[in-house]
Structure formats: structure tokens, C-alpha cells
Design brief:
The chain is α/β, with parallel strands linked by helices. It has 14 helices and 16 strands. It has two domains: 150 residues, Aspartate Aminotransferase, domain 1 (Alpha-Beta Complex), CATH 3.90.1150.10; 241 residues, 3-Layer(aba) Sandwich (Aspartate Aminotransferase, domain 2). The protein is globular. Bound molecules: pyridoxal-5'-phosphate. Keywords: Aminotransferase, Biotin biosynthesis, Cytoplasm, Pyridoxal phosphate, S-adenosyl-L-methionine, Transferase.
């Protein structure tokens, strides 16, 4: 390294995610945000990916902002161990009401990865508490469940975690019913859980699959006594066109994150069914769940979550999402380019898979010049728009995607 490069390295203060810091392109510097728009000093762009899929009601929503302000006037945070507060009580109650089945017992945490860690820990201890020995997990190829160690292990994303290849107790299968049945036939009694991103695998490549796979998974989990975990960190709150995929097939544990607070404050939840909770509820203190993130149930996050949920219901977001889906399908119907492998649309997710990742090089800057913030990864160009987007704005997002291909 020459002196100049060393100086440059020394002066970097922020260690940015998923980036080779030596070559990282300078990030767009955001000075304001409102609705679907992000502002830099000299540009205004539609955030076509909702700040990593969480900002469902858009930026600077006055109701959420005011609710956070009002809570901050009381207290911003108190720990949730030996203490509780109205926000946590109310949000847990409302989430349990909003979720299907007996998904009633809410464990808060500060990020999606931790909510998945907690779900896996619960599933593993469920059998320990029942004095059964089960050591394997069934998971999907191309799955992404977070960046912490156990979530990397159940995930299957060489794009992200290539540095950590190791032998594990996890079987990864394709979303194919035959492979599913084989896995259960061979190891059904060894699994403590099956974990999936239901219907839509996000970070692993925006792959979409059919509900029949999940229906069969539910049957087999019941038959072999395996807990079914839905990681709905990305799919929850409408993204797939369902409120939750858990409305269609009921898991034993569901993980929520990203849109949980409308994107205003990082928070997540692991919600367990009565059956799962009951295995921990005991006179034996050794059966308790030993986990407790410092910021679980954070008061500002609870307030944001309650308000976001209220808006989600009142503004009939499900109807908006189904409109976004129909409108996107209309704009992309019959669209073809030799460099495009497939176009997939589900709910509020539009994915354009390229044959070659190199064909997306330069797309981010191209989009920026067209007033769109986009972040393609690998060979996937995609949009996960805020639900408040107008037809005109959505047209701009999709036309920018097409314009890129048209000039290829
Ligand atoms: C984003 C994501 C996570 C991780 O959430 P973080 O808040 O980034 O830790 C886990 N699972 C899925 C399906 C995700 O999309």
C-alpha cells in the first residue's frame, strides 16, 4: 500500500456494509427525506427499495413522527426486564390480535437477525424442555436469514457468507415437494425445526415459489413433530400481497422485522404459538427462555410500531399492494430483452433477473440520473416500493428499469 492509499484508509470512519471499502463507490449523501423521496444536495430520487424494504408508509409520516416525539417527551427507553410499559403491552397485544392462529406470545428484539436467532433458540429448547434430542434444521437453498452466525448457518447465501463455509447440521433443499418429502423421510425425526422465508426469498435472489410447497411442509412438520418457522422479516406486513404468508399456512413461530415499525426504528419480534409457549411455561426455572436484548421493547420502537400498524389497517394497505402488483404487471406485461432471464412480480416486489450480473453494472448511477434510488445485487434488479407510491411514481420506477434494458 502506498502512502496515499494508507492515508485514505486511515481516514475512513464508517465501515459500510457489504462493501470492499477500498473500492466502494461514494454513497449518496442524504440530507432530507419525505414520502417516497430521498434528497441529496442536488437531486431528488424515489426510494424504489424502501430503505431495505422497511419504509412502507414513506418518510416523514407526520403521525409516526408525532407519536415518536410524544413518547420521547415521556421516556425513550426503559429495559423490559422487571419493568414494563404501556407501549410494549399495547403493541404485543395488537400484534397478537393481528397475527393469525395462536401466534400470541411476542418476544421483542432489536433486529431481524436476532429475531431469527431467538426463533431457532426457542425451537431447539422446545425439544430440550420436552427431553427429546433433535439436532438438525431443515432449510432452503438460496435462503437468507441474517448475518449472525446461526442465521448464516441456516441461510444459504454464498453471495454474502462465502468467507464462512463450514460443516453444519443444516439440510438445504430446493422448493420442490419431492425433495421436501425425501428430507423428511430420511431425517424427519432429527429436525427440531424447518425454517423458511415463505413464498418470497429476498436477499438470496428474489426467488418466488408456490404455496403448495408450504402446505406440504406444514403437513410433514405435523407428521414428524417438527416446528415450522416462518421468517417473515421481509415478507410480513403485506410485501407478498398477503398480510402475512402465515395467513395462508400457519407456522409455529413467526419472525417479524423490517416493516414492523414502518421503518422508523430498528426493531423485530419473534412470535410463538400457544403450543410452543406452553413448553417453556413451567414450575421449573430451567425451562425459561434465557435471552434478553438490552433494547427489546424500546419505547420509541413500540410507539412507531403501534402507529404503523394503525396506518396499515386504516389506509387499507392490502388494497394498495394489490394495485401495485396489478399495475406493475400491466407495465411489464410482454416485456422482453435477450439479456433478461425472467421477470417476477409478487405483491409489492418486482424482480428482473438478468442472465449476467455484469449487465447491471452502472445501473445504480443510471437510476440516480433518472431520479430513482435502486440497489441491484448479483444478477437481480428489483423494486420493493413504499406502499404510498402513486401510479406516476411507480411508472417512473418501472420505465427507468426498462430504459436500462432498452439501451443494452
Ligand atoms: C433482512 C432480513 C433478515 C435480517 O434482518 P436484520 O434486521 O437486517 O438483522 C432476516 N431475515 C430476512 C428474511 C430478511 O430479509
Amino acid at each position: 500500500m502506498n502512502e496515499q492509499e494508507f492515508e485514505k484508509m486511515k481516514n475512513q470512519r464508517i465501515w459500510y456494509p457489504y462493501a470492499q471499502m477500498k473500492h466502494m463507490k461514494t454513497p449518496y449523501h442524504i440530507v432530507d427525506a419525505n414520502g417516497v423521496y430521498l434528497y441529496t444536495d442536488d437531486n431528488k430520487m424515489i426510494d424504489s427499495i424502501s430503505s431495505w424494504w422497511c419504509m412502507i408508509h414513506g418518510y416523514k409520516n407526520p403521525e409516526i413522527t408525532d407519536a415518536i416525539k410524544a413518547q420521547a417527551e415521556k421516556f425513550s427507553h426503559v429495559m423490559l426486564c422487571n419493568l414494563s410499559h404501556d407501549g410494549a403491552v399495547e403493541f404485543a397485544e395488537k400484534l397478537a390480535d393481528f397475527l393469525p392462529g395462536t401466534l400470541n406470545h411476542v418476544f421483542f428484539s432489536d433486529s431481524g437477525s436476532v429475531s431469527v436467532e431467538v426463533a431457532l433458540k426457542i425451537a431447539m429448547q422446545y425439544y430440550i424442555n420436552k427431553k427429546q434430542r433433535r439436532e438438525k434444521v431443515l432449510s432452503l437453498k438460496n435462503s437468507y436469514h441474517g448475518d449472525t452466525f446461526k442465521t448464516m448457518e441456516v441461510g444459504d447465501s454464498s453471495e454474502y457468507h462465502f468467507a464462512f463455509k463450514q460443516k453444519t447440521n443444516v439440510d438445504h433443499i430446493n422448493t420442490n415437494i419431492e425433495e421436501l418429502e425425501d428430507a423428511f423421510k430420511n431425517h424427519g425425526e432429527e429436525y427440531y425445526c424447518m425454517i423458511v422465508e415463505p413464498l418470497l426469498q429476498g436477499a438470496g435472489g428474489m426467488k418466488m415459489y408456490d404455496i403448495s410447497f408450504l402446505k406440504r411442509a406444514r403437513e410433514l412438520c405435523d407428521e414428524y413433530g417438527v416446528l415450522l418457522i416462518f421468517d417473515e422479516v421481509a415478507t410480513g406486513f403485506g410485501r407478498t400481497g398477503n398480510r402475512f404468508v402465515s395467513d395462508l399456512v400457519l407456522p409455529d413461530i413467526v419472525c417479524l422485522g423490517k416493516a414492523l415499525t414502518g421503518g422508523y426504528i430498528g426493531h423485530a419480534a419473534t412470535v410463538a404459538s400457544d403450543k410452543v409457549y406452553e413448553a417453556f411455561y413451567s414450575d421449573e426455572s430451567g425451562k425459561a427462555l434465557m435471552h434478553g436484548p438490552t433494547f427489546m421493547g424500546n419505547a420509541l420502537a413500540m410507539t412507531a410500531g403501534i402507529k404503523s400498524l394503525e396506518i396499515f389497517k386504516r389506509e387499507n394497505c392490502m388494497k394498495k399492494i394489490s394495485h401495485i402488483e396489478e399495475f406493475s404487471k400491466k407495465l411489464l406485461s410482454g416485456y422482453k430483452n435477450p439479456k433478461i432471464k425472467e421477470i417476477r412480480i409478487m405483491g409489492g416486489c418486482i424482480a428482473v433477473e438478468a442472465n449476467n450480473p455484469a449487465d447491471l453494472t452502472g445501473y445504480q448511477d443510471f437510476a440516480y440520473k433518472n431520479g430513482i434510488f435502486a440497489r441491484p445485487f448479483s444478477n437481480i434488479m428489483y423494486a420493493m416500493v413504499p406502499y404510498i407510491i402513486t401510479d406516476t411514481e411507480l411508472t417512473q420506477v418501472i420505465e427507468t428499469m426498462k430504459a436500462w434494458w432498452n439501451k443494452q
